[in-house]
Write a structure and sequence with these properties.
The complex is a heterodimer of chains A (323) and B (177).
Chain A: H1 16-32, E1 47-52, H2 58-69, E2 73-78, H3 90-99, E3 104-109, H4 114-121, E4 125-131, H5 137-151, E5 158-162, H6 169-180, E6 184-188, E7 204-206, H7 209-214, E8 218-221, H8 237-244, H9 248-251, E9 259-261, H10 274-277, H11 284-304
Parallel strand pairs in A: 1-2, 1-3, 3-4, 5-6, 5-8, 6-7, 8-9
Helix pairs in contact in A: 1-5, 1-11, 2-11, 5-6, 5-11
Chain B: E1 5-8, H1 10-27, E2 34-39, H2 43-58, E3 64-67, E4 97-105, H3 109-119, E5 126-134, E6 146-150, E7 157-162, E8 171-176
Parallel strand pairs in B: 2-3, 2-4, 4-5, 5-6
Antiparallel strand pairs in B: 1-8, 7-8
The chains are: A alpha/beta (323), B alpha/beta (177).
Chain lengths: 323, 177
Amino acid sequence: MIWNRKHLLDIESLSAEEIGLVLDTARAFKAVGERAIKKVPALRGKTVVNLFVEPSTRTRISFELAEQRLSADIINFTAEASSLKKGETLKDTARNLEALNADFIVIRHSASGAPHFLARFLSSSVINAGDGAHEHPTQALLDTFTIREHKGKIAGLNVTILGDILYSRVARSDIWALTKLGAKVTLCGPSTLVPRVFEQMGCRVSHNVDEAIREADIINLLRIQHERQRQTMFPSLGEYSSLFGLSKARLAQTKPDVLIMHPGPINRGVEIDSEVADCGRSVILQQVTNGLAVRMAVLFLVNGGKGPQELAGGPVIVSTVPA
Amino acid sequence: MPEPTLILNAVAIQRALTRIGHEIAERNESSSEVVLVGIQRGGVPLAERLAKALAEIWGQPVPSGSLDVCMHRDDLHQRAAPHVQPTVIPFDVTGKTVVLVDDVLYSGRTVRAAMDALNDFGRPRRIQLAVLIDRGHRELPIKADFVGKNVPTAHTEIVRVRLAENGGPDEVVLEKR
């Protein structure tokens, strides 16, 4: 299997073999992070632009550190302190960055499809660091990496994704990655945030949290994305917490070897009890460590990718999210 | 397609490794300072076999590790990303004599990458190079200290080393491309 992609735009278009190659490569990069000297020269002389048009802390610093450990030169570009605030279009911003001979553009944007848009006319490699409610491919890769590290496989596992699915790019990327690798995915949350339309992606939809987590091997919790909601989707945070939050009492009813995951930032006391977040079954901080290895692997692989990339049509979004 | 030419059979490979083992022992009198590091992928089983041969000669275990050089290659921007294999060096290389082991020495670029990669694990006292086959065509000023067999080749030819550890019979063959 040869990696032939110049961009990483989404999980939807990846094959199970390609996902497997990223995970295998990430394992080698995780070992690099455990050495005394954590830096390798794989991207020496290359320039990476981190174009974060939407605020991000953990993904941005994870990409930055991954780039530094691969010996790349880095330009950080955030929306707050940039010409985008002065009315420059995304296309013009990107072309200016390309004129600086940037080899990679890592983009986070509030508009779904922004990375695909850039990939159509830029000669740089484009890596999607999260676009609107569409996809967050490196998060799905680090989630599957973490699951595989603990369970030794993905196929046949019961994965329950609990929380705000409607607005979650993490959920969409996770669903693609997990179903491609043969996991059984259950989505759970309030019916306003977990519409039945997601069944089209090959998942089971449940609105009963106790039932949804009972047989789960992995519970992946998602934060309520206040910033993307235009109207109130549930009566109150307190009600959400009591109906859908992962409490100690709920955890007691799950399989003894269940893994608790969360892409962060966590809202303690809302979707997860503080004690559950810090318990032995929680791998939330390991996800952060693994994210670094996965992002190094992605940069390493797309660096060698020259082949044709299917860009026709742009991304397909399953549910109709208010944009 | 012409028949591949057999260069070494199983017995000849074993004989070559035994001789290299004795040469390493002769060159490095202080056995406690020698460690072996096989270059992924072909060098790893050879390093393990050499470690066994040396352990018999010296009467004490000789550490052996594996080194992947993908991240230090000089052609990463010209080719599809190589598959990265595990690097396992469960000992300190600082102050040691590290014998790098590979199956085929060709351009010398892999060995250069291996020396760079090894630097990230410490500062060896010295580095030596053992290869099963030296097929010539060096592109860098690199020379093996221990050679199983010198095989003059054309660029159009391929040297294939098959080992029992990788599911083959032990043999080295020369194929036309």
